[in-house]
């Protein structure tokens, strides 16, 4: 029996429990992925109404660390950690936006956008990184010899690792694919003092290097193969339901790259079901770029097999991953949630992002993939007009300004830019302005 309320165990079912402070990423017996397990029987001693009341009392308050969207659910994430070891930048608590105009244009009455990019480093990665870096601090506090936290990244993970490590005073090393990360993403780890390494390879190549490097336990792995990341990210599910006054939406649509987020969202909803907080599960859609679509290809074969691919360049650079580490876990979640995998072409994702922006959003290209996939599912009649749909916007559009400028200047290769909106250059007099207004405003 476990001596703690939370522990690592093999996702493939091998016997044995491991401390979450063990520097361990895979099962020692079968090399399968690990997962974080909880004392669910102990958690059930508190009733559903009591859990909801507790979480509502803490939500977005200033008492450290419980005002965090993650640590306000500490008992369901990492109950054993000392508050003194928690490294929090008050992540989570992001707004759930009723996209009324966008929904109307798609034929939906109840479309919502979960704005995960409204976080400290402008992406959902902060939710998992607070748990991971807090655990590293706990390991160091207990005498562990960790010299640096290391990650491979397409941009957002490196920003989050560097910020949380800087807040904790722990060295960070980020490994990026050269010339495949936006300048807005690249400057974040540089500014936070991380050792930033740009390798002449793609993300999957960076991941191979990092996995070899972190075989040395002095270098702690921060990618989503580490199940601690999943624990923080699963609070997205809990927060969404909480923001709906504990009602469950019908659909959750998530951009999918390394597939940790799909896994985390499923685990969050399942934990709420286990505790009686909710009585049903939503359907989950994983949206992939057609140029980086190994999960979609597997879905089209009924998930009978999964084969990594070499991802092609895509505007949705954060999900340009051909060999996702969480594929097996994500497939299990999608099967349990009657899930769907859809894909979007480059033109479809760019158009969907631009269409959303005309209704007041400023979407990243990954969110464009999710919205384009939503459009397809509505057209196919799989999502009904009155069903409640939540699309996860995973990062701020401000990280992808080159994508936005390229679209509106019609400079993106093979993109039609139907909604391009270039500034008008006029003489400096009011008559010229009035003429422009007369021809433009309807």
Write the layout of secondary structure elements.
Elements: E1 6-10, E2 34-38, H1 40-43, H2 48-58, H3 74-77, E3 96-98, H4 100-106, E4 111-115, H5 125-141, E5 148-152, H6 156-168, E6 172-177, H7 183-191, E7 195-199, H8 203-213, E8 219-221, H9 227-233, H10 235-243, E9 251-255, H11 260-274, E10 283-289, H12 294-299, H13 327-336, E11 340-344, H14 346-357, H15 365-379, E12 389-393, H16 401-408, H17 430-440
Helix pairs in contact: 5-6, 5-9, 6-7, 9-11, 10-11, 11-13, 14-15
Q: Which strands sit side by side, in order, in the main sheet? A: 3-4-12-9-10-11
The structure class reads alpha/beta
CATH class categorisation of the domain at 96-121 and 230-399 = Alpha Beta
Measured distance between first and last alpha carbons: 70 Å
Mean pLDDT: 95
Strand content: 5-15%
Shape field: globular
Q: Which CATH architecture of the domain at 96-121 and 230-399 would you pick?
A: 3-Layer(aba) Sandwich
Task: Describe what this molecule looks like in 3D.
This protein has 17 helices and twelve strands. The chain is of the alpha/beta class and 442 residues long. The protein has a domain at 96-121 and 230-399: Rossmann fold, CATH 3.40.50. The strands form three sheets. Strands 3-4-12-9-10-11 form a six-stranded mixed sheet, sandwiched between helices. It has a four-stranded parallel sheet with strand order 7-6-5-8, sandwiched between helices. Strands 1-2 form a two-stranded antiparallel sheet.
Record keyword descriptors for this entry.
442 residues; alpha/beta; Rossmann fold; six-stranded mixed sheet; four-stranded parallel sheet; 12 strands
């Amino acid at each position: 029996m476990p001596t703690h309320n939370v522990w690592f165990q093999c996702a493939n079912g091998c016997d044995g429990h491991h401390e979450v402070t063990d520097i361990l990423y895979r099962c020692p017996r079968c090399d399968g992925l690990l997962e974080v397990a909880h004392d669910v029987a102990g958690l059930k001693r508190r009733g559903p109404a009591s859990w909801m009341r507790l979480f509502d009392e803490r939500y977005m308050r200033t008492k450290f660390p419980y005002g965090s969207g993650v640590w306000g659910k500490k008992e369901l994430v990492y109950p054993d950690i000392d508050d003194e070891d928690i490294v929090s930048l008050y992540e989570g608590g992001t707004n759930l936006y009723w996209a009324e105009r966008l929904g109307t244009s798609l034929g939906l009455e109840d479309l919502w956008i979960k704005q995960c990019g409204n976080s400290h480093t402008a992406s959902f990665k902060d939710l998992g990184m607070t748990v991971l870096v807090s655990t590293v601090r706990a390991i160091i506090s207990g005498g562990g010899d960790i010299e640096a936290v290391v990650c491979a990244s397409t941009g957002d993970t490196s920003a989050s690792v560097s910020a949380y490590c800087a807040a904790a005073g722990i060295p960070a090393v980020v490994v990026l694919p050269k010339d495949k990360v936006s300048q807005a993403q690249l400057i974040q780890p540089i500014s936070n003092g991380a050792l930033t390494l740009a390798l002449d390879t793609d993300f999957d190549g960076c991941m191979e290097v990092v996995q070899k490097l972190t075989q040395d336990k002095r270098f702690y792995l921060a990618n989503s193969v580490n199940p601690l990341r999943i624990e923080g990210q699963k609070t997205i599910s809990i927060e969404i339901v909480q923001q709906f006054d504990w009602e469950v939406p019908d659909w959750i649509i998530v951009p999918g790259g390394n597939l940790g987020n799909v896994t985390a969202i499923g685990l969050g909803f399942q934990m709420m079901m286990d505790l009686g907080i909710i009585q049903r599960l939503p359907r989950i859609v994983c949206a992939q770029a057609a140029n980086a679509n190994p999960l979609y290809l597997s879905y089209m074969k009924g998930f009978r097999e999964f084969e990594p691919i070499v991802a092609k360049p895509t505007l949705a650079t954060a999900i340009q991953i051909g060999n996702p580490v969480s594929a097996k876990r994500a497939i299990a979640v999608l099967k349990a949630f009657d899930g769907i995998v859809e894909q979007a072409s480059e033109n479809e994702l760019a158009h969907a992002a631009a269409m959303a922006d005309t209704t007041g959003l400023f979407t990243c290209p990954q969110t464009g993939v999710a919205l384009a996939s939503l459009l397809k599912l509505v057209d196919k009649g799989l999502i009904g007009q009155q069903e409640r749909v939540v699309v996860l916007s995973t990062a701020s559009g401000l990280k992808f300004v080159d994508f936005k400028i390229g679209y509106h200047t019609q400079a993106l290769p093979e993109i039609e830019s139907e909604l391009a909106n270039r500034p008008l250059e006029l003489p400096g007099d009011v008559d010229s302005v009035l003429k422009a207004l007369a021809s433009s405003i309807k």
